[in-house]
Amino acid sequence: MSETIKNWVNICVKKDNKILLLNRQHDDFKGWIQPGGKVEFPESFFEAAVRELKEETGLTALNLELKGISGFTNPLKKERYVYYDFLCQSFEGDLLKTSREGEPRWFSLEEIEHLEMQDDIRERLPLYYRKGSFERIHYWDDQLKKVVKTVTKCYD
């Protein structure tokens, strides 16, 4: 049986000491999230990141740095959800007042600690700021219906 891979992108938009997040309130993943979404075949991962950033924030990325790979692996079903994690520190355009994913807002790095967000996002955000790249994989147990192990590796 071959594996199934589903591809997504996350974009950490950083300006000075602030991060752009969206207040997502429309499904099971509520809370503050970074821009991102599904890669639409046959676009490249960089093209998907540029498109998602524009759709969700109104901003056009002028540079993107691939910082890491994260996601979920379901060994029983041989499924992977792969997230290509990009850092964007140069962009142009006007920030939308609202988007389909929620209100975009800038936060200082200190403010992020107090925001309502998924633990995975809170733990992954600092990986974008460090030198080098990272890999963060969650292993899903289909019988228990939960993540049973998370492995994070940093590469300098």
From TrEMBL:
PROSITE patterns: NUDIX, NUDIX_BOX
InterPro entries, per the entry: Nudix_hydrolase (IPR020476), NUDIX_hydrolase-like_dom_sf (IPR015797), NUDIX_hydrolase_CS (IPR020084), NUDIX_hydrolase_dom (IPR000086)
CDD domains per UniProt: NUDIX_Hydrolase
SUPFAM superfamilies in alphabetical order: Nudix
Cofactor(s) needed: Mg(2+)
Keyword Hydrolase: yes
Keyword Hydrolase: yes
Keywords per UniProt: Hydrolase
An example molecular function term from Gene Ontology annotations: hydrolase activity
Highest taxon, organism lineage: Bacteria
Residue intervals of the Nudix hydrolase domain: 4-129
Family: Belongs to the Nudix hydrolase family.
Name of this chain's protein: 8-oxo-dGTP diphosphatase
